[in-house]
Amino acid sequence: MASVNATRRGTASKISDATDSAKLIGFNEEGLMCAWYGGYGFNVYDVTGSWNKVDHFTSMELAGIAQKFGEERRSYAKHRMESEGFQIVE
User: Which of 50, 16, 48 lies closest to 35, judged by CA?
Assistant: First the structure.
């Protein structure tokens, strides 16, 4: 039972690390989660059990939008995630 609890704690820690501070989170049908933290990069995690980071992609358009335009950045990030096949969780 101790190893099961350790595994659960490890998984909970990975979930927390993947989602903490995320501004947007989206899931796809392939068991992947995409997280955007407010910058110009997106991290993709395998949520089928491992919660390991499996991919990373960037958006130079986001890099070009000034930080002060927060809602514009969020809107574009949402569009970018959807274009990659992720359904945003609101």
Answer: 16
Q: Could you give the number of structural domains in the chain?
A: 1
Q: What is the pLDDT of residues 17-40, one digit of tens each?
A: 778 889 999 999 999 999 999 888
For 12, the domain range is 2-88
The reported pTM is 0.82
- Supply 35's token pair: 């997280």
**Tokens linked to 73:** 């950045």
Phi, psi of 49 (to 5 degrees): 155, -40
Task: State which H helix or E strand residue 10 sits in.
Answer: helix 2-19
Question: Virtual CA dihedral for 28, 29, 30, 33, nearest 10 degrees?
Answer: 30
Amino acid identity, position 24: L
H/E element holding 55? strand 53-58
8-state DSSP, 15: H
Helix-, strand-, coil-residue percentages of the chain, each rounded to 5: 40, 25, 35
